[in-house]
Amino acid sequence: MDIIAPVVTPFRSGKLDLDAFASHIRNIVRKGVDAVFVAGTTGLGPALSVEERKALLEAAASAAKRVIFQAGALNLDDVVALVKYAERFDVEAVASVPPYYFPRLSERQIVRYFKDICSATSLPVYLYNYPTATGKDVDARIAKEIGCLKGVKDTNEDIAHTLAYKRLLPDMRAYNGSDSLVLASFAVGLDGVVASSANYMPEVLVGIREAVRAGDLERARRLQFLINEVLDVARPLGYSSAVYELIKAFQGYDVGEPRPPIYPLEDEDKDKLAAAVSKIKEALRL
Amino acid sequence: MDIIAPVVTPFRSGKLDLDAFASHIRNIVRKGVDAVFVAGTTGLGPALSVEERKALLEAAASAAKRVIFQAGALNLDDVVALVKYAERFDVEAVASVPPYYFPRLSERQIVRYFKDICSATSLPVYLYNYPTATGKDVDARIAKEIGCLKGVKDTNEDIAHTLAYKRLLPDMRAYNGSDSLVLASFAVGLDGVVASSANYMPEVLVGIREAVRAGDLERARRLQFLINEVLDVARPLGYSSAVYELIKAFQGYDVGEPRPPIYPLEDEDKDKLAAAVSKIKEALRL
Amino acid sequence: MDIIAPVVTPFRSGKLDLDAFASHIRNIVRKGVDAVFVAGTTGLGPALSVEERKALLEAAASAAKRVIFQAGALNLDDVVALVKYAERFDVEAVASVPPYYFPRLSERQIVRYFKDICSATSLPVYLYNYPTATGKDVDARIAKEIGCLKGVKDTNEDIAHTLAYKRLLPDMRAYNGSDSLVLASFAVGLDGVVASSANYMPEVLVGIREAVRAGDLERARRLQFLINEVLDVARPLGYSSAVYELIKAFQGYDVGEPRPPIYPLEDEDKDKLAAAVSKIKEALRL
Amino acid sequence: MDIIAPVVTPFRSGKLDLDAFASHIRNIVRKGVDAVFVAGTTGLGPALSVEERKALLEAAASAAKRVIFQAGALNLDDVVALVKYAERFDVEAVASVPPYYFPRLSERQIVRYFKDICSATSLPVYLYNYPTATGKDVDARIAKEIGCLKGVKDTNEDIAHTLAYKRLLPDMRAYNGSDSLVLASFAVGLDGVVASSANYMPEVLVGIREAVRAGDLERARRLQFLINEVLDVARPLGYSSAVYELIKAFQGYDVGEPRPPIYPLEDEDKDKLAAAVSKIKEALRL
Questions:
Q1: pTM (2 decimals)?
Q2: Which of helix, strand or coil describes residue C103?
Q3: What are the backbone angles phi and psi of residue A64, rounded to the nearest 5°?
Q4: Is the ipTM of this complex over 0.90?
Q5: Residue A215 within a domain
Q6: Do B163 and A224 touch (CB under 8 A)?
Q7: For burial by CB atoms within 10 Å, which of B27, B53, B272, D153 has the most?
Q8: Of the listed B54, B136, B150, B153, which one is catalytic?
Q9: Is residue D176 part of a domain?
Q10: Angle, to 10 degrees, between the axis of helix A202-213 and the axis of helix A217-251?
């Protein structure tokens, strides 16, 4: 039962801050995070250039033992370049979202996209399924048709949807990607979670895993509910931006800010978030 | 961790067959079902007359110790008459869907509807939330505003949505109503499930509960997946109609048929279902 | 290009007020409404008993020359009884929504439902398609498969969806049912509209039709936008309930109130509506 | 009533073919297209590099008098560079989709994005609203809050949604972007359409406009339905890819192919399309 962090990408004045990135990774790994997912949604992957993604991968590989590298993009040449580059490092897998934005791709085109990625690399290829972001659902049936996938990060509120990959493809590793389903993912025996809360509350995720293992659902639920309380406040403010502030608030260090059009939170919103966080920190101390 | 069956309503030539109904209930209770949910969606509740619902309630009360009676309708006078009638029997709770069909009800109107039901009866009132059927989501926040609800059947693929009732209203009983989330509901510690598969595969649901209690997630998942296989075949044929055939196939007796416009399956579809069932029965024997 | 009013059903203390109903119909017919649609959504059709619907039909037939009678219900016997009863009157057509509430009906079951209605009556049968209310879209392709439909009221924000019935079934009468598409329906040459605003602003609908005929799109648009302004205010309050108040405000007489759970507006909401109406009445005078 | 073509971007072996691009533009302009929309969805805009978009703009400006340049991207620096570059040419407007992919942006962030674009350029800025592709609806109310927009391409099946921009912002130019609403857009008096069918059937769009002007709705509808027939066949195959084949089939020249992951159609799908096209060409000749 892995805890995987889709790590945040720190910017300062529009440039990557690789030192902050690596030191953030080291901190959360020390606190119990098993692996990092680089250039995912929390990491603003689709908003990064090829060169930026390469730099992130290199920095992540130096800071964590287990790295999954998200290489999805709207130009297949870029995707191929990225997965080939990943072979230089000891990465656990490359992953990709299906082609996003374009709403009328056929299933055949999506299957071909993933097959082309598999052909381009000797690394294990993971599906990153996130229908709300990409507008298409690459479900277990399509994953089976693709044939070469070794794992999936399924960002989906329906845990039965994630379990379906295990049902149709028992050898595939299956992770749920929703912060509100950490407890449920552990409890039903998925391979783990890829949850952005692992950036700012890794201790809580570790606590949930321990509680589930110990059969203490009461405690597991209390901890999960703390994450939900953060989400209730942070999501309406723009979650991708809020994660930077949440790291500062919970972990105590500065990981820079996102890059526009993912704008940093405005001061008013930072204050709202801070007020909520201090309540939750108190609940955590109990 | 209750297993509650939203019991099927047997018709013969458009009339209720109350004997088949009672004897079906006795059978599944004997096999481990804890309570029955009368006149729910599987029971074709919104398609029944007030008199039919009363007759069902009376028959159910004679056949099961624990009965929850769904009284939701589009005329509040009917709802009030039904919940008052329920007081004559030893029912555990009355339940109601929010007003369905009408898509532009305000939240205020929905809150008032449930408050009016609570005022009309001394029995505990449960919310039956089923957004796909009713077109509105009476979530934990609204349930809290209603204030008088003692339980919820949440037919929802998102188990975090069901858990949210426990988060905001810790004293409320919370059941998930999706056949594909039986394992997940037990594993995260909900109060149980109200699953229509309890009509035709009660043994499997009992098996999942035992496996979860024993910490044998492998086995729990294998059993859950058998339910999913039934759903994959049955849903495209018209699930409400298929349930009657599934009872015949798995439990070995005839519970009549639904009433048009919920048409009985045509022969061709019955054959498709039978073929799938015989494979699943084999898997069950292993 | 017909203007059809889905007439409101007036209640007083939970009982039908047939006099108010008939006199409301006479008023709007006098103002240019061509036909009435009885027991539709605005008329709270699915919330009425069989007897209530028969009484409404009788009253409507005495007050308007052209009547379409909506007979859809969740018990086919009731639907058949209603369409047979309609044969006693000089009605233009009977109509039906597909079976609502039940989310997992197969296309085959829906097709059979409409074929059964056609078989039960010598009257023309119209489809009343309203996906937001019923949860299923009986589109032009399915309508073609049904084979016996003579018309459609398509309550749908996508006018191309309504035009598709004319494309696949050129002899079918096609009406759009959205208040915000009155201008568009006339402008693209549909057979007309079934718009609930015809209850409270029949003069405006007549004005739009005249302006479109005269090629004065500027004026047609200005009038359509007045309807939209009403909708902006009325929809959040519960549109079905607001219609009763809008009739009072614009037409100057009392048509009673809806029946719970379609609750009458509370005073606070009535005031909000009144304020908006008086602005719009001023704009109308210009 | 403008006919604007969101022009296709021709690739050969993954590289832009600017000659084919310019000569395609010249052809459709000669046939009655009023303006071109460069690097939109049909033009695979979000899949192009900054340099590729600049090259397209230069070529388009040499081939058409009226050019709108879509500059939206997930890095604001790139967007600013593109709109500044556009000032070198005689372009009519720059346009942008809201930030796509990221599902949890706040309204405030979206408003700020468009304000930042307006601040960066002296050119008129148009909103390109396409909720199905971007996952967010920048409707008339938000457009009004942005304050600096001069036009909108609204790719939306609901024409009332497009009309709402004219209602709240009468000075804004409003175009609908759906191929199935060409007739409706002209008939209700929008400023025109931005329809990808203008790439392959410009004559038909010109014909619809003429028919609407002449009040011949019968003919306008017959022509619109021909477009719909193309869409019925082309959309399931992957519409963005099909457009290249449709240009070849209807206009008789080769504009290259898309770039993976927007894969060219496979031969089998090309054949399906060709069969449909030859029927439609016959209907056109009548």
A1: 0.97
A2: coil
A3: -135, 150
A4: yes
A5: no
A6: yes
A7: D153
A8: B153
A9: yes
A10: 170
